[in-house]
Fold this protein.
Amino acid sequence: MDEERIGVGLVGAGRIGSFHAHTLAQRLPGARLAAVADPAPGAAERLTRALSGRPYADPKALLDDPDVRAVVLTSPAATHAALVRDCAAAGKAVFCEKPMALTLEDADAAVAAAQQAGVPLQVGFNRRFAADFAAAREVVVSGGIGTPQLLRSVIRDPGLSDPGAVRPWTLFLETLIHDFDALLFLNPGARPLEVYAVADALVAPAYKDAGLLDTAVVVLRFDNGALATAEASFSAAYGYDIRGEVFGSAGMVSAGDQAAGSLRHWDAGGLHRPTVRRDVDLFAAAYTAELAHFVDCVRTGAAPQATGEDARRALAVALAAIRSVQERRPVRLEEVEPA
Ligand SMILES: NC(=O)c1ccc[n+]([C@@H]2O[C@H](COP(=O)([O-])OP(=O)(O)OC[C@H]3O[C@@H](n4cnc5c(N)ncnc54)[C@H](O)[C@@H]3O)[C@@H](O)[C@H]2O)c1
Protein backbone atom coordinates (compact mmCIF):
# COMPACT_ATOMS: atom_id res chain seq x y z
CA MET A 1 0.00 0.00 0.00
CA ASP A 2 2.79 2.42 0.99
CA GLU A 3 4.47 1.97 -2.41
CA GLU A 4 1.28 3.26 -4.04
CA ARG A 5 1.40 6.42 -1.98
CA ILE A 6 3.60 9.27 -3.19
CA GLY A 7 6.43 9.92 -0.71
CA VAL A 8 6.37 13.65 0.04
CA GLY A 9 9.03 15.61 1.93
CA LEU A 10 8.12 18.77 3.81
CA VAL A 11 10.60 21.63 4.21
CA GLY A 12 9.74 24.00 7.08
CA ALA A 13 7.98 22.56 10.13
CA GLY A 14 6.34 25.78 11.32
CA ARG A 15 2.71 26.86 11.51
CA ILE A 16 1.42 26.10 8.00
CA GLY A 17 4.01 23.35 7.57
CA SER A 18 2.51 21.48 10.51
CA PHE A 19 -0.95 21.69 8.97
CA HIS A 20 0.31 20.46 5.58
CA ALA A 21 2.28 17.67 7.31
CA HIS A 22 -0.92 16.43 8.95
CA THR A 23 -2.68 16.58 5.58
CA LEU A 24 0.06 14.54 3.88
CA ALA A 25 0.19 12.00 6.70
CA GLN A 26 -3.50 11.68 7.52
CA ARG A 27 -5.86 13.29 5.02
CA LEU A 28 -4.65 12.12 1.61
CA PRO A 29 -4.97 8.48 0.65
CA GLY A 30 -2.53 9.00 -2.25
CA ALA A 31 0.32 10.48 -0.21
CA ARG A 32 2.51 9.79 2.78
CA LEU A 33 4.81 12.05 4.77
CA ALA A 34 8.25 10.60 3.94
CA ALA A 35 10.52 13.25 5.50
CA VAL A 36 10.61 16.65 7.18
CA ALA A 37 13.48 19.16 7.11
CA ASP A 38 13.85 22.18 9.39
CA PRO A 39 17.05 23.72 10.77
CA ALA A 40 15.41 24.69 14.09
CA PRO A 41 16.50 22.18 16.73
CA GLY A 42 13.82 19.53 17.31
CA ALA A 43 11.32 21.01 14.82
CA ALA A 44 11.49 18.26 12.18
CA GLU A 45 11.57 15.50 14.85
CA ARG A 46 8.45 16.92 16.50
CA LEU A 47 6.47 16.29 13.31
CA THR A 48 8.06 12.99 12.23
CA ARG A 49 7.67 11.53 15.73
CA ALA A 50 3.97 12.46 15.81
CA LEU A 51 3.26 11.50 12.19
CA SER A 52 5.81 9.63 10.06
CA GLY A 53 8.99 10.00 8.01
CA ARG A 54 12.64 10.83 8.58
CA PRO A 55 13.74 14.15 10.15
CA TYR A 56 16.50 16.29 8.65
CA ALA A 57 18.02 19.60 9.70
CA ASP A 58 19.19 20.40 6.16
CA PRO A 59 16.72 20.59 3.24
CA LYS A 60 19.49 19.37 0.90
CA ALA A 61 19.65 16.08 2.84
CA LEU A 62 15.89 15.71 2.36
CA LEU A 63 16.35 16.23 -1.39
CA ASP A 64 18.97 13.44 -1.43
CA ASP A 65 16.46 11.02 0.14
CA PRO A 66 15.39 8.64 -2.68
CA ASP A 67 12.08 7.98 -0.90
CA VAL A 68 11.10 11.65 -1.41
CA ARG A 69 9.41 12.00 -4.79
CA ALA A 70 7.81 15.38 -4.24
CA VAL A 71 8.45 18.29 -1.89
CA VAL A 72 6.19 20.77 -0.09
CA LEU A 73 7.98 24.03 0.79
CA THR A 74 6.66 25.80 3.90
CA SER A 75 9.85 27.53 5.03
CA PRO A 76 10.02 31.37 5.22
CA ALA A 77 9.36 33.33 2.03
CA ALA A 78 12.98 34.41 1.49
CA THR A 79 14.06 30.75 1.13
CA HIS A 80 11.45 29.71 -1.47
CA ALA A 81 12.95 30.60 -4.86
CA ALA A 82 16.31 28.93 -4.19
CA LEU A 83 14.59 25.86 -2.75
CA VAL A 84 12.35 25.55 -5.84
CA ARG A 85 15.52 25.52 -7.96
CA ASP A 86 17.12 22.93 -5.64
CA CYS A 87 14.01 20.72 -5.90
CA ALA A 88 14.04 21.00 -9.70
CA ALA A 89 17.75 20.17 -9.83
CA ALA A 90 17.04 17.07 -7.74
CA GLY A 91 14.19 16.08 -10.09
CA LYS A 92 11.51 16.46 -7.41
CA ALA A 93 8.03 17.83 -8.01
CA VAL A 94 7.48 20.91 -5.88
CA PHE A 95 4.59 22.59 -4.12
CA CYS A 96 5.73 26.00 -2.85
CA GLU A 97 3.84 28.12 -0.34
CA LYS A 98 3.33 31.69 -1.44
CA PRO A 99 5.18 33.85 -2.22
CA MET A 100 7.24 31.67 -4.56
CA ALA A 101 9.82 34.46 -4.89
CA LEU A 102 10.43 38.01 -3.74
CA THR A 103 11.82 39.35 -7.03
CA LEU A 104 10.67 38.79 -10.61
CA GLU A 105 14.16 37.62 -11.55
CA ASP A 106 13.97 34.89 -8.89
CA ALA A 107 10.42 34.00 -9.99
CA ASP A 108 11.57 33.62 -13.60
CA ALA A 109 14.54 31.48 -12.55
CA ALA A 110 12.31 29.22 -10.43
CA VAL A 111 9.78 28.75 -13.24
CA ALA A 112 12.55 28.08 -15.77
CA ALA A 113 14.25 25.54 -13.47
CA ALA A 114 11.02 23.56 -13.03
CA GLN A 115 10.31 23.67 -16.76
CA GLN A 116 13.81 22.54 -17.70
CA ALA A 117 13.70 19.70 -15.16
CA GLY A 118 10.19 18.74 -16.29
CA VAL A 119 8.85 18.68 -12.73
CA PRO A 120 5.40 19.95 -11.68
CA LEU A 121 5.51 23.29 -9.83
CA GLN A 122 2.44 24.34 -7.88
CA VAL A 123 2.04 27.42 -5.66
CA GLY A 124 -0.04 27.71 -2.48
CA PHE A 125 -2.83 29.97 -3.73
CA ASN A 126 -5.40 28.07 -1.69
CA ARG A 127 -8.37 30.30 -2.54
CA ARG A 128 -8.36 28.74 -6.03
CA PHE A 129 -9.21 25.45 -4.29
CA ALA A 130 -11.96 26.86 -2.05
CA ALA A 131 -15.26 25.60 -3.46
CA ASP A 132 -16.98 29.00 -3.46
CA PHE A 133 -14.09 30.83 -5.16
CA ALA A 134 -13.78 28.08 -7.79
CA ALA A 135 -17.55 28.23 -8.41
CA ALA A 136 -17.44 32.03 -8.66
CA ARG A 137 -14.81 31.78 -11.37
CA GLU A 138 -16.94 29.23 -13.25
CA VAL A 139 -19.84 31.70 -13.20
CA VAL A 140 -17.58 34.41 -14.64
CA VAL A 141 -16.15 32.05 -17.30
CA SER A 142 -19.61 30.87 -18.31
CA GLY A 143 -20.76 34.47 -18.86
CA GLY A 144 -23.07 34.42 -15.86
CA ILE A 145 -22.27 37.98 -14.83
CA GLY A 146 -21.71 39.37 -18.33
CA THR A 147 -18.60 41.52 -18.79
CA PRO A 148 -16.58 41.95 -15.57
CA GLN A 149 -16.49 45.62 -14.59
CA LEU A 150 -15.70 45.79 -10.87
CA LEU A 151 -13.84 43.27 -8.74
CA ARG A 152 -13.16 43.28 -5.03
CA SER A 153 -10.96 41.16 -2.81
CA VAL A 154 -10.84 41.46 0.98
CA ILE A 155 -8.42 39.94 3.48
CA ARG A 156 -8.71 40.71 7.17
CA ASP A 157 -6.57 38.70 9.50
CA PRO A 158 -7.78 38.30 13.08
CA GLY A 159 -4.67 39.33 14.94
CA LEU A 160 -1.28 40.96 14.92
CA SER A 161 0.30 39.29 17.93
CA ASP A 162 3.90 40.44 17.40
CA PRO A 163 4.12 43.56 15.20
CA GLY A 164 7.88 43.78 15.73
CA ALA A 165 8.38 40.41 14.01
CA VAL A 166 6.64 41.42 10.75
CA ARG A 167 9.14 42.01 7.97
CA PRO A 168 8.68 45.20 5.91
CA TRP A 169 6.23 44.81 3.01
CA THR A 170 4.82 41.52 4.34
CA LEU A 171 1.33 42.98 3.88
CA PHE A 172 1.88 43.02 0.10
CA LEU A 173 4.31 40.13 -0.46
CA GLU A 174 2.69 37.54 1.82
CA THR A 175 -0.86 38.69 2.58
CA LEU A 176 -2.30 40.72 -0.32
CA ILE A 177 -0.47 38.42 -2.75
CA HIS A 178 -3.43 36.05 -2.18
CA ASP A 179 -5.83 38.85 -3.18
CA PHE A 180 -3.85 39.78 -6.26
CA ASP A 181 -3.99 36.14 -7.33
CA ALA A 182 -7.71 35.97 -6.47
CA LEU A 183 -8.41 39.02 -8.67
CA LEU A 184 -6.46 37.43 -11.54
CA PHE A 185 -8.29 34.13 -10.97
CA LEU A 186 -11.69 35.83 -10.96
CA ASN A 187 -10.93 37.94 -14.04
CA PRO A 188 -9.61 35.12 -16.26
CA GLY A 189 -7.22 36.07 -19.02
CA ALA A 190 -7.15 39.75 -18.10
CA ARG A 191 -3.82 41.48 -17.55
CA PRO A 192 -3.35 44.10 -14.85
CA LEU A 193 -2.05 47.35 -16.34
CA GLU A 194 -1.72 49.77 -13.43
CA VAL A 195 -1.76 49.72 -9.63
CA TYR A 196 -2.29 52.45 -7.04
CA ALA A 197 -1.81 51.56 -3.38
CA VAL A 198 -2.12 53.40 -0.09
CA ALA A 199 -1.06 51.78 3.18
CA ASP A 200 -0.58 52.68 6.82
CA ALA A 201 0.03 51.26 10.27
CA LEU A 202 -3.38 51.77 11.85
CA VAL A 203 -3.32 48.66 14.04
CA ALA A 204 0.17 49.15 15.50
CA PRO A 205 1.17 52.76 14.71
CA ALA A 206 4.16 52.58 17.06
CA TYR A 207 5.83 50.19 14.60
CA LYS A 208 5.34 52.31 11.49
CA ASP A 209 8.80 53.88 11.73
CA ALA A 210 10.26 50.35 11.79
CA GLY A 211 8.56 49.65 8.45
CA LEU A 212 5.30 48.04 9.55
CA LEU A 213 2.27 48.48 7.31
CA ASP A 214 -0.83 46.68 8.57
CA THR A 215 -3.66 48.24 6.55
CA ALA A 216 -3.89 48.85 2.80
CA VAL A 217 -6.16 49.57 -0.15
CA VAL A 218 -4.96 48.76 -3.66
CA VAL A 219 -6.70 49.86 -6.87
CA LEU A 220 -6.01 47.93 -10.08
CA ARG A 221 -6.90 48.62 -13.69
CA PHE A 222 -7.07 45.60 -16.05
CA ASP A 223 -6.64 45.44 -19.83
CA ASN A 224 -10.24 44.20 -20.25
CA GLY A 225 -11.42 47.47 -18.74
CA ALA A 226 -12.28 46.04 -15.32
CA LEU A 227 -11.40 48.02 -12.20
CA ALA A 228 -10.58 46.26 -8.94
CA THR A 229 -9.78 46.88 -5.31
CA ALA A 230 -7.93 44.70 -2.86
CA GLU A 231 -7.96 45.65 0.79
CA ALA A 232 -6.20 44.21 3.79
CA SER A 233 -6.01 44.58 7.54
CA PHE A 234 -3.86 42.61 9.96
CA SER A 235 -6.43 42.92 12.74
CA ALA A 236 -10.13 42.18 12.38
CA ALA A 237 -11.66 42.02 15.86
CA TYR A 238 -14.36 39.59 14.70
CA GLY A 239 -12.25 36.89 13.04
CA TYR A 240 -10.74 35.79 9.76
CA ASP A 241 -12.54 37.50 6.88
CA ILE A 242 -11.82 36.59 3.25
CA ARG A 243 -14.13 37.65 0.43
CA GLY A 244 -14.12 38.03 -3.33
CA GLU A 245 -16.64 39.66 -5.65
CA VAL A 246 -17.05 40.22 -9.36
CA PHE A 247 -19.67 42.67 -10.61
CA GLY A 248 -20.47 42.68 -14.31
CA SER A 249 -22.84 43.94 -16.98
CA ALA A 250 -25.33 41.12 -16.29
CA GLY A 251 -24.97 40.47 -12.57
CA MET A 252 -22.65 39.81 -9.68
CA VAL A 253 -21.00 36.84 -8.03
CA SER A 254 -19.43 36.74 -4.59
CA ALA A 255 -17.45 34.18 -2.59
CA GLY A 256 -16.50 34.05 1.06
CA ASP A 257 -18.80 34.07 4.04
CA GLN A 258 -17.85 35.82 7.25
CA ALA A 259 -19.82 33.25 9.27
CA ALA A 260 -18.31 29.93 10.35
CA GLY A 261 -21.40 27.99 9.36
CA SER A 262 -25.15 28.13 9.23
CA LEU A 263 -25.63 28.46 13.01
CA ARG A 264 -27.59 31.52 14.09
CA HIS A 265 -28.23 32.40 17.73
CA TRP A 266 -30.95 34.87 18.68
CA ASP A 267 -31.13 36.32 22.19
CA ALA A 268 -31.88 39.61 23.95
CA GLY A 269 -28.68 41.02 22.45
CA GLY A 270 -29.84 40.29 18.92
CA LEU A 271 -28.68 37.81 16.30
CA HIS A 272 -25.24 36.18 16.61
CA ARG A 273 -23.33 34.08 14.09
CA PRO A 274 -19.95 32.52 14.98
CA THR A 275 -16.94 33.56 12.92
CA VAL A 276 -13.73 31.73 12.05
CA ARG A 277 -10.57 32.66 13.95
CA ARG A 278 -7.83 30.83 12.03
CA ASP A 279 -6.90 30.36 8.39
CA VAL A 280 -6.38 26.64 8.98
CA ASP A 281 -10.04 26.41 10.02
CA LEU A 282 -11.52 28.61 7.29
CA PHE A 283 -9.42 26.98 4.58
CA ALA A 284 -9.01 23.44 5.95
CA ALA A 285 -10.82 21.97 2.93
CA ALA A 286 -9.01 24.21 0.42
CA TYR A 287 -5.57 23.48 1.94
CA THR A 288 -6.37 19.78 1.70
CA ALA A 289 -7.72 20.06 -1.86
CA GLU A 290 -4.63 21.92 -3.11
CA LEU A 291 -2.31 19.19 -1.83
CA ALA A 292 -4.62 16.45 -3.16
CA HIS A 293 -4.38 18.17 -6.56
CA PHE A 294 -0.58 18.41 -6.28
CA VAL A 295 -0.24 14.71 -5.44
CA ASP A 296 -2.56 13.85 -8.36
CA CYS A 297 -0.36 15.91 -10.69
CA VAL A 298 2.75 14.11 -9.44
CA ARG A 299 1.06 10.77 -10.04
CA THR A 300 -0.41 11.55 -13.47
CA GLY A 301 2.07 14.10 -14.81
CA ALA A 302 -0.77 16.60 -15.34
CA ALA A 303 0.12 20.31 -15.15
CA PRO A 304 -0.95 21.81 -11.83
CA GLN A 305 -3.39 24.67 -11.39
CA ALA A 306 -1.92 27.62 -9.42
CA THR A 307 1.37 27.59 -11.29
CA GLY A 308 4.73 29.29 -11.02
CA GLU A 309 3.54 31.69 -13.72
CA ASP A 310 0.52 32.56 -11.57
CA ALA A 311 2.92 33.25 -8.69
CA ARG A 312 4.94 35.56 -10.92
CA ARG A 313 1.83 37.46 -12.06
CA ALA A 314 0.68 38.07 -8.48
CA LEU A 315 4.20 39.05 -7.42
CA ALA A 316 4.40 41.66 -10.19
CA VAL A 317 1.23 43.29 -8.82
CA ALA A 318 2.66 43.19 -5.27
CA LEU A 319 5.89 44.83 -6.41
CA ALA A 320 3.98 47.51 -8.31
CA ALA A 321 1.84 48.15 -5.19
CA ILE A 322 4.96 48.49 -3.05
CA ARG A 323 6.46 50.99 -5.47
CA SER A 324 3.15 52.85 -5.54
CA VAL A 325 3.24 53.24 -1.74
CA GLN A 326 6.88 54.30 -1.83
CA GLU A 327 6.40 56.86 -4.60
CA ARG A 328 2.78 57.87 -3.82
CA ARG A 329 1.64 57.49 -7.43
CA PRO A 330 0.00 54.94 -9.74
CA VAL A 331 2.57 52.46 -11.10
CA ARG A 332 2.26 50.65 -14.43
CA LEU A 333 3.08 46.95 -14.32
CA GLU A 334 5.77 47.30 -16.97
CA GLU A 335 7.69 49.62 -14.63
CA VAL A 336 8.51 46.71 -12.29
CA GLU A 337 9.60 44.31 -15.06
CA PRO A 338 13.29 43.37 -15.08
CA ALA A 339 15.33 45.53 -17.49
N1 LIG B 1 -1.30 29.84 1.93
C1 LIG B 1 -1.54 30.31 3.15
O1 LIG B 1 -2.68 30.62 3.47
C2 LIG B 1 -0.41 30.45 4.12
C3 LIG B 1 -0.69 30.50 5.49
C4 LIG B 1 0.38 30.64 6.36
C5 LIG B 1 1.69 30.75 5.89
N2 LIG B 1 1.91 30.70 4.54
C6 LIG B 1 3.28 30.85 4.00
O2 LIG B 1 4.05 29.73 4.42
C7 LIG B 1 5.38 30.13 4.71
C8 LIG B 1 5.70 29.73 6.16
O3 LIG B 1 4.83 30.44 7.02
P1 LIG B 1 4.61 29.98 8.56
O4 LIG B 1 3.58 30.90 9.10
O5 LIG B 1 4.37 28.52 8.65
O6 LIG B 1 6.05 30.34 9.17
P2 LIG B 1 6.72 29.76 10.50
O7 LIG B 1 7.70 30.81 10.90
O8 LIG B 1 5.68 29.31 11.46
O9 LIG B 1 7.51 28.47 10.00
C9 LIG B 1 8.63 28.50 9.19
C10 LIG B 1 9.50 27.28 9.51
O10 LIG B 1 10.56 27.20 8.57
C11 LIG B 1 11.76 26.89 9.26
N3 LIG B 1 12.90 27.34 8.46
C12 LIG B 1 13.58 28.51 8.52
N4 LIG B 1 14.54 28.54 7.58
C13 LIG B 1 14.47 27.36 6.91
C14 LIG B 1 15.19 26.80 5.83
N5 LIG B 1 16.19 27.46 5.24
N6 LIG B 1 14.84 25.56 5.40
C15 LIG B 1 13.82 24.89 6.00
N7 LIG B 1 13.10 25.37 7.02
C16 LIG B 1 13.41 26.60 7.47
C17 LIG B 1 11.62 27.57 10.61
O11 LIG B 1 12.49 26.97 11.57
C18 LIG B 1 10.14 27.35 10.91
O12 LIG B 1 9.93 26.12 11.58
C19 LIG B 1 5.44 31.65 4.45
O13 LIG B 1 5.92 31.87 3.15
C20 LIG B 1 3.99 32.08 4.54
O14 LIG B 1 3.70 33.22 3.77
C21 LIG B 1 0.90 30.53 3.66
Observations:
- The CA atoms of residues 191 and 223 lie 5 Å apart.
- The pocket of nicotinamide-adenine-dinucleotide is lined by residues 11-17, 37-40, 43, 59, 74-77, 79, 97-98, 124, 126, 174, 279 (CB under 6 Å).
